[in-house]
Structure formats: structure tokens, C-alpha cells
Amino acid sequence: MSDAGKILEEMNDRSREVFRMVVQSYIDSGEPVGSRTLTRTLSEKVSAATVRNVMQDLEYLGLLDSPHVSAGRVPTQLGLRMFVDGLLEVGDLNATDRKKIDATLGDNSRDVGGMLDRVGAALSGVTQGASLVLTPKHEAEIRHIEFVSLAHDRALVVLVFSDGHVENRLFTPPPGQTPSSMREAANFLNALIEGKTLSEVRSTIQREILARRQEIDVLAGEMVESGLAVWDGEGEDSERLIVRGRANLLGDAAPEDELDRIRTLFDDLERKRDIAEFLELTEDGEGVRIFIGSENKLFSLSGSSLVVSPYMNADRKIIGAVGVIGPTRLNYGRIVPIVDYTAQLVGKLISDRS
Predict the structure, then answer these.
(1) How high is the pLDDT of residue 256?
(2) Residue percentage of the chain with pLDDT more than 70
(3) Which domains does the chain have, with CATH numbers?
């Protein structure tokens, strides 16, 4: 059991109710909660002084904090984590929300990228947060690879997959490359790639280049390595991150320091910082996971929360994720079923298309 879980178990009914009401009120309004407000809504009739004492105890435990001397309390990150783990009541998916999500996924197009773009827009619209959609890796077997010279310092590498999917990337070839060295590099690759996926090809190629350095022209070998580097760089080879709804987090009413933190978050996302680790957040088990503030280093500076769920292909392999970013006072009880439903629906549709 976590430390937060032990604290919750040891709290009496009154402390638990005061804590739950402070957190729920903060999630609803974003404002600190005072003892007089709680006194009017508690199930048992107690004085404001009694409630103040309970809140002081909760503050001592690290579950509540006082933003100002004379103000009420707000939950700390530890408090929010304890609430999410032990007291959160997750509702059923609202019928209206379900219809909005279904409407974005209802066509029969095989364009998975377009479908996931619409998913991101729907999630941000329904939740009024920012949405994240990590698109799946393309893991079909490779049928053919080709290098095309465009200029002395620019070339194109083209990959044709067994399912008909074609991808190409621009890259800078090594100086002195010739049409014959480009053909030699492509022939070398095509002799090795049949029946392999892109992730399997990389390790095979690297071993083969080392083992057969004398058999392949140096320039052709450099072409191979340069072309593969394009697919191996900055996470571009496998994942695309779709972010929608950033305006929802950049409202005019937010304090300037909060706006700066949110801008930092989006700058990191746009640079794809730590995106290679994004899927790892979800791999400890199926279903929705909630990360609050610094529990996820990608969001630690912005003080945001992330509600995220993986989606799987027909082989039950995690291939992507969908999630919602918002302030730590997210309405977790409503967001969790939305994210869960969307992830399951995306996984089903991708499996059907494949």
C-alpha cells in the first residue's frame, strides 16, 4: 500500500469527509476552500473551529496547503494523488460525450492519420482540455527500399511496405555519392529486408555492415547508414504526436506564471522532448493512468495533469495512446471514462482497418 493509501486508511470519517469536500470543491471551482463553507455542507453539524482543526491536521499531513495566510485550503499534489487513488468516483460515460466521440470516428476511411486527427479534436472539445494522441508505429513488413538523388546535397529514401503503405524522407547523403553507389546501397538493403519490419531491419543492417565491410563499397555503406539515420532520428521513425486544444489551457484569466508554465509544456511537446518514453507511461497495465504534476517529468514544469490510456492492435500489442492534459484540478471522474472509451474505440477501429 502506498503512503497516501496508509494515510487515508488511518483517517477517521470526519477527516476523510472534510478532505474529500476540499478536493471536490477545488476541482469544481479552482478556488481555496474555507472552514465556514465546509461547515454548511458537512453531513454532521460541527463548528467552524472544529473544521479548521481538521484542516490544520490535514495540512500537517501534507494533503492540504494554504496559498495565502487568510485564505482557505487547496489540495497538494500528494492530496490529489490520494483522492484519485482512494476517493475518486468515476462516473459512466455521458451519452452526449459518447455521441461526439463516435461522430468523429464513424466514417469508413482507411486514413488512420486523419481519423486520429479527428480523435484529438474531439477529445479536446469534449473535455475542454488539451488532447494528446500518439499514433501507432507502422510495423508492416518492408517490400522495397530505394534512394533517389534530388541534388548534390539532397536525396530521398523511399520505403514501400507489404501492405501497400509508402513512406519517404529527405536526407543529406554523404559527399561524393554517385548513381552507382546509390543503386549499390539500395541493392544491399533489398537483399536483407524482405520479410522484416523497420524496427527489425535496423539491427540487421548494422550487423551486416560491420560483418561485410569489405564487400560493400564504402560510399554505398555510408549511404545505407545515412538513409537509416533518417528513420532512426528524434522518434520520427515510429511515432507522431498530435496535440489539439492548447487554447483551452491558455485562457485569458490564467495568471501569467501559469501561462508561462503551460507555454513551456507545449514547447516541450512540439520539440517531442521525452516522447520516446511516452508510451512507457502506459505499459504497466491496461486501462487509464493518471499522472499529476511532477509524477511525469514531461509535465513537471507546467504543474499539469495527464489522463492517458494505451490502445492496442488486434494482437493485443500497445501501439499508441490517447490522453487529456489539463490543470491538476481536472474533473477526473468525468475525464477517465472519456479517455478509456476513446482508447478502446481507436484500438478497435485500427484493428478492423488492418
Answers:
(1) 65
(2) 75
(3) 3-86 (1.10.10.10), 95-137+240-353 (3.30.450.40), 142-231 (3.30.390.10)
